[in-house]
Specification:
The structure is a single chain. By secondary structure, the protein is an alpha/beta fold. The protein has eleven helices and 13 strands. It has a seven-stranded parallel sheet with strand order 3-2-1-4-5-6-11, with helices on both faces. Strands 7-10 form a two-stranded parallel ribbon. Helix 1 crosses helix 8, helix 7 crosses helix 11 and helix 9 packs across helix 11. It binds nicotinamide-adenine-dinucleotide (NAD) and UDP-4-deoxy-4-formamido-beta-L-arabinopyranose.
């Protein structure tokens, strides 16, 4: 019998791609989503890719009785991936309570139910945002975290602290926080991908929308940073590589002997690329000119951050398959597919 993995936020960008990876690795993903930041059409795309429809609960993860009924109904849940959260950094500054309530509240509900139903293994969506502007590059898991510069970032740090505290209480829940760097791209089928809400805040959807003619121009936020071409550097990881890291994280947790356990793992490519390099690579793979201008720095941006992924390579037995060219090719294919709709 296939192992069931509860996937909160499974209709979202990373969750839907991870559902594919879980299915391919022999698991049954059970999706919980309230569609606050996703579309039900995602399920159709998923079904076309994997050939079956997946169990789905349209539920708010903060609704404990509803979540409890999922644990009861599904029975033998082997593990949980907690993607469900709000993720807009700027919005979190304007509406901090909304972020603390959803991102922390949902984790607490889940942990209480996992303890109650003796579901042991949890993979949590954390972020490289916990490092702020690190003093050393690339960042390892030992690199000290910095005070978060947004309530969103703080929710990720607080959730990590909660998971760490659980080990001290001898909780039976064993968890891994995967610290994602910048997820980009889409499934090669272009049946699922990133669905930005309104004007994209993130670089890649803004680039693809500009190339598609939806946006007139993209502004590069600053070219006076202390980097080779003056623009910020990030570690852009293909979303399917990131998805695979989640299935490997369950294999890792299964190998853990301790009853109570918590670990953090960077998931990136290990390579940093500047904004201008991204634009140049996109133009090369898409054959499209991107209309851009250099503007002011964006408040809160760190100059550069990219991962040391030795730990993920070693303990997860995982490595990336896709490079930036492939990520941008897939992002562009997805944008073109969206434009047809
Ligand atoms: P997303 O918004 O596409 O997906 C999140 C999903 O969770 C959405 O489908 C949304 O409807 C759902 N959701 C939110 N709150 C819910 C609730 N209370 N109950 C049920 N469903 C709820 O975001 P994503 O990019 O797929 O991110 C997934 C996770 O990864 C988030 O925790 C995010 O903070 C984290 N993360 C994302 C990035 C990134 O750049 N995309 C980087 C680092 C970490
Ligand atoms: C990437 C680079 C911008 C848009 C955010 C969150 C982080 C994490 C990932 C969740 C930066 C530049 C962007 C534009 C630009 N999410 N840029 N023009 O800021 O690295 O990280 O998403 O955990 O917490 O903060 O990603 O895609 O917004 O920006 O020049 O129109 O592109 O300055 O250097 P970021 P991003």
């Amino acid at each position: 019998m296939k192992k069931k993995i509860l996937v909160t936020g499974g209709a979202g960008y990373i969750g839907s791609h991870t559902a594919v990876a879980l299915h391919n690795a022999g698991y049954t993903p059970v999706i919980v989503d309230n569609f606050s930041n996703s579309s039900k059409n995602v399920l159709q795309g998923l079904e076309k890719i994997i050939g079956i429809s997946l169990p789905l609960y349209e539920i708010d993860c903060n609704d404990k009785p509803a979540m409890k009924s999922v644990f009861e109904k599904e029975g033998n849940i082997e593990g949980v991936i907690h993607f469900a959260a709000y993720k807009a950094v700027g919005e979190s500054v304007k509406e901090p309570l909304k972020y603390y309530q959803n991102n922390i509240g949902s984790l607490l509900v889940l942990l209480e139910l996992m303890e109650q139903f003796e579901v042991k293994n949890l993979v949590f969506s954390s972020s490289c945002t916990v490092y702020g502007q690190p003093d050393e590059l690339p960042v390892t898991e030992q690199t000290p975290t910095k005070p978060a510069n947004s309530p969103y970032g703080r929710t990720k740090q607080m959730c990590e602290d909660i998971l760490s505290d659980l080990t001290k209480s001898k909780s039976p829940v064993r968890s891994v926080a995967l610290r994602y760097f910048n997820p980009v791209g889409a499934h090669e089928s272009a049946l699922i991908g990133e669905l930005p809400n309104g004007v994209p805040a993130n670089l890649i959807p803004f680039v693809t929308q500009t190339a598609a003619g939806i946006r007139e121009q993209i502004t590069v936020f600053g070219n006076d940073y202390n980097t080779a071409d003056g623009t910020c550097i990030r570690d852009y990881i293909h979303v399917m590589d990131l998805a695979d890291a989640h299935t490997k994280a369950f294999e890792y947790l299964d190998r853990v002997k301790e009853t109570s356990f918590y670990d953090t793992i960077n998931v990136g490519t290990g390579q940093g690329n500047s904004v201008l390099e991204v634009l140049e690579t996109f133009e090369k793979v898409s054959g499209q000119k991107v209309n851009y201008r250099i503007g002011d720095r964006r408040e809160g941006d760190v100059e550069q951050v990219y991962a040391n992924v030795d730990k993920a390579n070693k303990v997860l037995n995982w490595e990336t398959k896709y490079d930036l060219e492939r990520s941008l090719t897939d992002a562009w294919r997805w944008e073109q597919e969206l434009s047809k709709k």
